[in-house]
Structure to design on (777 residues):
C-alpha cells in the first residue's frame, strides 16, 4: 500500500526515462512506484505504420527483461493505453497481447508488474487485466481521469459494477485519479481533489493516488537568455489540499516530472531546444537553449552548477551529470571542438533523475 | 533602447519648454545608440536635432560666437596647431596675441581665415571680447539652468545680469573657465550638440564642490593601479557602494564629486586636474544605473592611472588644444583599463556569459569577481552591443538616491 510519503511519477517508456529510473539511489527508490506508459516506437521516414506495430510486437517480449534491468522486481505500474494500431479492434488486440506477454514475463521473474486499467477500456482488456492481476497476485491500478467525474454518483456505480463484474475487491486495487494538466487556476485542482475524496469507501482501496501535471506543453513562454521560473502548481496545490483536516484519505503524490501530461506522438519529430529543466522546491528553473545549439547545454550546466539553487552533485545521478558537464566546460572553455555537450536524451534523463530525487525528498519529509 | 519605434513616435514639433526638455531627453536616448546617419534611426536623430535647434533659435536668440572661440573650434576640428595659423595671421607672436584676445583681427586676417579655414566673416568681424567680458555670449538657456540649479546665490540673481553672475561664479571659485579635464561621454564624444560652456560651468561647479571637501591626504602618482581599482569595485556589492567609493578615494587623495549634468552636456564624468595634489573625479550619474556609475568612475580613475603625469603638462594650459586623435587614444586606453578592471578579459573568455547573456550568467560572473551583477550586466550589454539585454538587472538598483542633496531632474 502506498501512502502520502510515497511518490508515483508518470513516465513514458523511453530511453531517457529508463536511464533516470535505472540510476535511482536505493534510498530514493523505496519511496517510488512509477507508472510507466508504453508508447509506440518512433516512426521512421516513409515507414508504413504497420511496420511500426510489427517492431513493437517483436520487441515486446524483451520488455519484461528490460523493465527488470532498469527497475528490478519492485512494484511498477504498467499502462498500455497509449499503444495503438490503425483500427480500433487491432488496437485492442495489440494492447491485450502486450498485457499478456509483458505480465507473464514479469511473473516468471517474480517481478511485481501492476497493470493499469481505465474505465473506458475495452471489455477484452478489462477481462485479461483482472484475470492476470489475480493469477499473478499483483492486483491492478484503476486510473480514473477527470471526465469520469462528470457525475460522481454514476461514477461510483460504474466502479462498483466493474469490481463486481470482475470479482475484484478494493484492497486488490490501487485507484489513481489523474486530472492531467493544470495551471495557475486552483479551481480545477481543488474541485477534483475534493471529488476524489468522495469516491465510495475511499479508505478500502489498496492505494489512493492523485496525479496532475503543470509542466507546460512547450517552452514558448520561456525567454531566451533569461532565467525562467515556472511554478510547480501540481506540487503547490497538493501541499495545500493535504493540509485540509477534512480529507478522508491523503493521496500519494503523482506528477508527470518535467513533461507535459498529454502525450503527443507527433512531437517526436521536432528538434527540441537545448534547454535544461531543473526542478526546484516549488518551481522549475528553465535555462532555455536554442534548437541544435548544443554548446548551450555546457554553458548552462556551468551556470547551474555554480548557482546557489543547485543541489550538489551527490543529490542525484542527474545532478552528478550536470556537475560533470560544468567541469568539462571549465576544462575546455576555450576549445569548443573538444566539447562533449550531451544531447536531448541525456539532458532529459538528468532532469528527470533530479526531479525524482527532489520529489522523494519532499514527500518523504512530510509529516 | 527599449523600442526605437516608440521613441520615433515621440518626435514632434517643439512648441513649449516642456516639449523642449522632452526633446532633449529623447535626443539623449537616441544618442546612446550612436546610430549610423544613413539609417532611419540616424535620420530621426538629425530631424530631432533640427527641431531642437529651430526651437532654440526662436526662444533663445543668440549672438554670434566669439571670433576666438570660432577659430579655436575650427583648429580643433581640423587638428591644427597654433603654428598652422601663421599663414593666415602672420607671425607666431601675432597668432598668440590673437588667440589670447590681446589683439583684434585685421580685415586681411578675416579674409584669409574665411577663405582658408571657412570661418564666416560675419563671425570674425565681431569685436574680440576682452577677458573680462567673455561671459556675454553664454546661451540664455544655460544661464537659466545654472540659476535654477543654484549656481548663483539667490541674493545676487535679481541684482546682476547673466554675464555678471557667471563672472562672479567663476571668480568666487578662483579659476578661469578653461578647466583642465578629460571628458567622457558614452557616445558622440565630440558631439556638435554639446555646449562647451555648459561643460565649463559644470566643471567649475565640480571644482567648487571639491574645494569644500576637507582632505588631508595627498595623491601620490602611481597610487592608482588596476589592483586598487579592483579593490574599489568590490564596494559595488554594498548597498551604499557609491558613497563608500567616495570615502575610499578620499583616503587616497582623490575627491569624488557628484554633479548632475546640464541639458546639453551629455556628460557622464570627468577627471579634473586643477590641483595636482588632489585630483577631482566628477560624475553626473546621467543614467541612474549602477553599471553606468561604476564604469564611468573606473574610466575616470583609469585616466588618473594612465595619464596623470603626462596629463598635467599636456592639458593644464589649454584643454581645447588637445588633438582629437590624442584624446581618442587616451579615451580608448581608459575604456580598456576600466573594462579590464571590472571584467578581466581572461575571465570573460571562459565565462558562460559569453554564450548566454542571462541574468543568471551575470550574477554568476559577478559573484566570482566580487562585484555587483549590474556591472557585469552592463558589460555584457556593451560587449554584445545589445542594450535590450538584462534591462531589469541594470535598472533595478539606482544610484541618485544615495546622493539626495543633488537637484536631480524628475
Amino acid at each position: 500500500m502506498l501512502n502520502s510519503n510515497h511518490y508515483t511519477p508518470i513516465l513514458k517508456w523511453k530511453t531517457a526515462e529508463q536511464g533516470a529510473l535505472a540510476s535511482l539511489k536505493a534510498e530514493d527508490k523505496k519511496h517510488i512506484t512509477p507508472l510507466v506508459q508504453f508508447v509506440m516506437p518512433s516512426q521512421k521516414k516513409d515507414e508504413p505504420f504497420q511496420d511500426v506495430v510489427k517492431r513493437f510486437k517483436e520487441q515486446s517480449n524483451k520488455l519484461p527483461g528490460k523493465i527488470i534491468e532498469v527497475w528490478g522486481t519492485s512494484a511498477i505500474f504498467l499502462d498500455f493505453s497509449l499503444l495503438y494500431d490503425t483500427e480500433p479492434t487491432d488496437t485492442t488486440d495489440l494492447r491485450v497481447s502486450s498485457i499478456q506477454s509483458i505480465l507473464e514475463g514479469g511473473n516468471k521473474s517474480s517481478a511485481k508488474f501492476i497493470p493499469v486499467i481505465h474505465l473506458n477500456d475495452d471489455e477484452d482488456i478489462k477481462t485479461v487485466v483482472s484475470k492476470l492481476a489475480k493469477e499473478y497476485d499483483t492486483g491492478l491500478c484503476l486510473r480514473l481521469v477527470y471526465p469520469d467525474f462528470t457525475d460522481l454518483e454514476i461514477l461510483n456505480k460504474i466502479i462498483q459494477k466493474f469490481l463486481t463484474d470482475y470479482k475484484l475487491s478494493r484492497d486488490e486495487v490501487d485507484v489513481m485519479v489523474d486530472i492531467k494538466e493544470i495551471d495557475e487556476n486552483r479551481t480545477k485542482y481543488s474541485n477534483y481533489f475534493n471529488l476524489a475524496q468522495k469516491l465510495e469507501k475511499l479508505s478500502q482501496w489498496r492505494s489512493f493516488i492523485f496525479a496532475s501535471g503543470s509542466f507546460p506543453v512547450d517552452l514558448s513562454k520561456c525567454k531566451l537568455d533569461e532565467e525562467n521560473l515556472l511554478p510547480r502548481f501540481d506540487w503547490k496545490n497538493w501541499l495545500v489540499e493535504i493540509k485540509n483536516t477534512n480529507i478522508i484519505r491523503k493521496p500519494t503524490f503523482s506528477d508527470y516530472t518535467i513533461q507535459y501530461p498529454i502525450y503527443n506522438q507527433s512531437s517526436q519529430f521536432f528538434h527540441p531546444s537545448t534547454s535544461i529543466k531543473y526542478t526546484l522546491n516549488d518551481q522549475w528553473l528553465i535555462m532555455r537553449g536554442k534548437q541544435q545549439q548544443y554548446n548551450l547545454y555546457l554553458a548552462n550546466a556551468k551556470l547551474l552548477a555554480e548557482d546557489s539553487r543547485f543541489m550538489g552533485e551527490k543529490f542525484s545521478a542527474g545532478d552528478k551529470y550536470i556537475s560533470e558537464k560544468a567541469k568539462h566546460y571549465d576544462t575546455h572553455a576555450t576549445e569548443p571542438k573538444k566539447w562533449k555537450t550531451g544531447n536531448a536524451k541525456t539532458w532529459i534523463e538528468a532532469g528527470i533523475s533530479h526531479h525524482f530525487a527532489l520529489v522523494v525528498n519532499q514527500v518523504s519529509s512530510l509529516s | 533602447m527599449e523600442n526605437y519605434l516608440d521613441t520615433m513616435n515621440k518626435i514632434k514639433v517643439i512648441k513649449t519648454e516642456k516639449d523642449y526638455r522632452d526633446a532633449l531627453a529623447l535626443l539623449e536616448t537616441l544618442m546612446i545608440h550612436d546610430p549610423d546617419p544613413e539609417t532611419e534611426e540616424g535620420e530621426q536623430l538629425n530631424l530631432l536635432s533640427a527641431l531642437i535647434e529651430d526651437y532654440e533659435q526662436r526662444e533663445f536668440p543668440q549672438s554670434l560666437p566669439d571670433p576666438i572661440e570660432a577659430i579655436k573650434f575650427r583648429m580643433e576640428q581640423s587638428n591644427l596647431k597654433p603654428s598652422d595659423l601663421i599663414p593666415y595671421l602672420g607671425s607666431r607672436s601675432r597668432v598668440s596675441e590673437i588667440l589670447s584676445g590681446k589683439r583684434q583681427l585685421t580685415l586681411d586676417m578675416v579674409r584669409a581665415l574665411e577663405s582658408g579655414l571657412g570661418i564666416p566673416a560675419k563671425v570674425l568681424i565681431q569685436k574680440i571680447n576682452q577677458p573680462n567680458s567673455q561671459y556675454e555670449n553664454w546661451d540664455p538657456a544655460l544661464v537659466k539652468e545654472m540659476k535654477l540649479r543654484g549656481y548663483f546665490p539667490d541674493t545676487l540673481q535679481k541684482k546682476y545680469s547673466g554675464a555678471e553672475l557667471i563672472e562672479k561664479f567663476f571668480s568666487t571659485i578662483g579659476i578661469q573657465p578653461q578647466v583642465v579635464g578629460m571628458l567622457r561621454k558614452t557616445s558622440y564624444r565630440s558631439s556638435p550638440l554639446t555646449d562647451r560652456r555648459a561643460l565649463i560651468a559644470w566643471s567649475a561647479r565640480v571644482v567648487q564642490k571639491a574645494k569644500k571637501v576637507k582632505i588631508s591626504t595627498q595623491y601620490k602618482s602611481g597610487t592608482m593601479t588596476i589592483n586598487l581599482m579592483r579593490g574599489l569595485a568590490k564596494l559595488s556589492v554594498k548597498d551604499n557602494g557609491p558613497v563608500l567609493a567616495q570615502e575610499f578615494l578620499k583616503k587616497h587623495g582623490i575627491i569624488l564629486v557628484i554633479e548632475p549634468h546640464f541639458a546639453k552636456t551629455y556628460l557622464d564624468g570627468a577627471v579634473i586636474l586643477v590641483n595636482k595634489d588632489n585630483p577631482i573625479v566628477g560624475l553626473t550619474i546621467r543614467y541612474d544605473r549602477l553599471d553606468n556609475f561604476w564604469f564611468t568612475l573606473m574610466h575616470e580613475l583609469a585616466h588618473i592611472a594612465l595619464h596623470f603625469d603626462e596629463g598635467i603638462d599636456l592639458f593644464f594650459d589649454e584643454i581645447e588644444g588637445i588633438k582629437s586623435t590624442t584624446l581618442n587614444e587616451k579615451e580608448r586606453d581608459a575604456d580598456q583599463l576600466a573594462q579590464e578592471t571590472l571584467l578581466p578579459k581572461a575571465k570573460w573568455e571562459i565565462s558562460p556569459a559569453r554564450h548566454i547573456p542571462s541574468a543568471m550568467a551575470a550574477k554568476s560572473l559577478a559573484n566570482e569577481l566580487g562585484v555587483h551583477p549590474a556591472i557585469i550586466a552592463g558589460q555584457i550589454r556593451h560587449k554584445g552591443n545589445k542594450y535590450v539585454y538584462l534591462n531589469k538587472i541594470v535598472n533595478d538598483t539606482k544610484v541618485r538616491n544615495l546622493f539626495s542633496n543633488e537637484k536631480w531632474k524628475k
About this structure: Chain B touches chain A through 16 residues (CB under 8 Å). The beta strands of chain B are 181-184, 255-258, 269-272, 280-283. Chain B has 20 helices and four strands.
